[in-house]
Amino acid sequence: QVHLVESGGGLVQAGGSLRLSCAASGRTDRILAMGWFRQAPGKERELVARMGWSNGEPYYADSVKGRFSISREMARYTVNLQMNSLEFEDTAVYYCYADRLGSDNKFWGQGTQVTVSS
Question: Where does residue 97 rank: exposed (0-12), middle (13-18), buried (19+ CB within 10 A)?
Fold first, then answer.
């Protein structure tokens, strides 16, 4: 099992910034990727950003390109999401996740609320 603990999030005005962090513990060997999904009320969960753990290759949803930046701290098994120029539409619960070789399912954090006021 991989245990994920998120921090950050909160309330911010449109145009502001927030930083999310997610630390993995447990069976962190063979982690393939870590990243963030989000889910707004009444909408499906969507992938926001991910990073390949060994190669550091990032992926961003079109809706956040140029505004969000994902990074990793390998020694601490931590992934960070810097969110700039936040928009009302970014309001959602953000979930950290991890993919691990040999596991069919993703591992999930508990979720952290991000609220952007317009």
Answer: buried
Distance of alpha carbon 90 from alpha carbon 113, whole angstroms: 10
Helix (H, G, I), strand (E, B) or coil at 22: strand
Residue 57 has which token pair?
């290759």
Provide the β-strand partners of residue 4.
24
How does pLDDT run across 17-62, given as a tens digit for each residue?
999 999 999 999 999 999 999 999 999 999 999 999 999 999 999 9
Give the C-alpha separation, 21 to 36, whole Å.
10
Contact 21, 8 (CB under 8 A): yes
Q: Do the beta carbons of residue 18 and residue 10 sit within 8 Å?
A: yes
Amino acid at 93: V
Residues in CB range of 75: below 8 A, 6 or more apart: none
